[in-house]
Amino acid sequence: MRVKLNEAVPEDGPDLIQSNLQSRDLHRPWASPFIDEQGFQQWLELAGAENYAGMVARTVETGEIVGVVNISQIFMGAFQSGYLGYYGSIHCAGRGLMTQAVRAAVHFAFGQLGLHRLEANIQPDNVRSIQLVRRLGFRKEGFSPKYLKIDGQWRDHERWAILADEFGDELR
């Protein structure tokens, strides 16, 4: 494993802000992450909420930012589900590092959090993101028109999901 995934901490701020600023062209129109201290503080507060897990992926070797992975709207009880979101750094794009980061997050969700299901909503033209979830065993469940407002526009999304017992032998 070339990536370590940790819960977000205040010390991540400067590196994440710089990475997000440098990666804006990579993120557009798929995501619009924070690019200043105020945005980071808002995300960090959300990341520590009871129904949210905000995590930062870094390379093991240098500590460089690989990206961010969020598990949001975590519901327990009979539902035991959450929503998976992620975005990467331009400096690590195309090296398989976000796949490792998201795999670690899915393992965390099904293992430590005890979730039964994860859903990832991805814009249909975001081919790289769709390829990533496919590699991890997610299946396409449907299409949601104008599902999420990103960068001021309502955008269509495909729903991709995976269940804990579909994720693989590493959880057994």
Description:
- The protein has five helices and seven strands; from the N terminus they run E-H-H-H-E-E-E-H-E-H-E-E.
- It is an alpha+beta fold and 172 residues long.
- A hairpin with a 5-residue loop joins strand 2 and strand 3.
- It is globular and about 40 Å long.
Short note summarizing the structure:
By secondary structure, the protein is an alpha+beta fold.
Gyration radius, rounded: 15 Å
The percentage of residues in β strands lies in: 25-35%
Mean pLDDT across every amino acid position: 93
Helix coverage percent of residues?
Answer: 25-40%
CATH topology: Aminopeptidase
Largest sheet: spatial strand order: 1-2-3-4-5-7-6
Task: Quickly give the CATH architecture.
Answer: 3-Layer(aba) Sandwich
Shape: globular
